[in-house]
Amino acid sequence: MPREVLGVAAELGLSVLVHPMQLPRAEWDHHYLVNLIGNPVETTTAVAAVLLGGVLEELPDLRICFVHGGGCAPLLLGRWGHGWRSRDVPLRSPSPSSTSTRSPTIRRS
Questions:
Q1: N or C: less crowded end of the chain, CB within 10 Å?
Q2: pLDDT one-digit tens code per residue, 16-46
Q3: CA distances (Å), 72 to each of 9, 44, 69, 75, in order?
Q4: Is the pTM of this model over 0.85?
């Protein structure tokens, strides 16, 4: 999502809901993997882009929600933190610097 759109949402006090698009991948054609794996992976990618890309630092008033419990992101924060501390790559700290980042915790089984 372009930062300009996120910037306008933050400026207007609007909340942003991030949901995966279920992009087709040949390896996910069977066993409902497009949903079982695809949604969490796409959600995780969105969380990583926001956290590691410095979006929350740039837009501290942004209210953003990642569906599907944030995907795998909660489990990967430690890995992202290690990569941030040990690698010479242009990443931002993966720690959420804003309390405005939310992932739904009520999920159906």
A1: C
A2: 999 988 777 899 889 999 888 899 999 999 9
A3: 25, 5, 8, 6
A4: no
